[in-house]
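re: ur question from earlier - yeah i can do the single chain one, its not a big deal. heres the input i used so u can compare w yours
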Amino acid sequence: MTDPLLEVRGLKKYFPVRGGPLRRVVAYNKAVDGIDLSIMPGEIVGLAGESGSGKTTVGRTILLLTKPTEGKVIFEGRDLASLNARELNRTRERMQIVFQNPFSALNPRMTVRTLIEEPLLIHKMGNAKERDQRVRELIALVGLNDEHLNRYPHEFSGGQQQRIGIARALALNPKLLILDEPTSALDVSVQATILNLLLDLREKLDLSYLFISHDLGVLRYICDRIGVMYLGRIVEMASTQELFEKPQHPYTISLLSAAPRPTLQQNRHEIILQGEISQSAIGQGCRFSPRCPATQIDTCKTDEPSLDEWREGHRVACHLTHQNLPLNIVTVSGEIYTGE
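and the output i got, formated as tokens:
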């Protein structure tokens, strides 16, 4: 069996919260609190969840743009923490990121040619003629042409700006792209063209993606597997089809019920969660229990559930699922939804 391209083990990222006149550390914001994740060559893995769940921090920590508090990031069989600065710099050529807002990610003072060429200059790749040829190849690869190279970012639409960002990310021939909400700042009509471009590039260049998004419809369209995050942890991980057809975690079921109807099965029951996502729930049993719409058992209030395999390829962090108990969720219409 092929080894994973990327493997994340026990990844944690805590941010200190300071208070008092001396600005001492009084608590920690546990943005990522123990993530296990793998991506196979050519695979697209999605991360879903509401704002504050830690999705973006996972992506930035994998790239070591933010230093992890704990855990391992293993890329192509090598633990990134064990690499020296030179080795890490060479490894980063094969791991790139595409940001959410293309306009803020592109330097407005630089032309498209300079923006795309910049990674090649930083990593000292090729001479001037070779770099120019590479820039022309990249701009064509994302559906633009040579006449765009001497323009500035503000002269392009949002979709075109994102294409430029993708071209820049591809400059160093990476094997893994981390896509941080790459379509959320775009019009719906443009989103599909960017998603189709990403799928086309995966086939042409043998790429793997970690696709971070709150849009379940986008994730369903592009991903092979999806992990659902809540308060820094993955609470459910399954193939895309399995997750949408047989969700097992109450949070996943609630998210799906809130998505636009074309994303869902027609018989999905609408569920409204009470309260807000809060760090105060961590350490009080299941971190989702204060908002969980399902009938709970004592263990929900005392023990944190582990992400265990419910069936092959489908993992769930829920005491009810582990014990094969019905969820018994009260829907907006007053009906009881058992999760089956």
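DSSP finds twelve helices and 14 strands in the chain. not sure if urs matches, ping me
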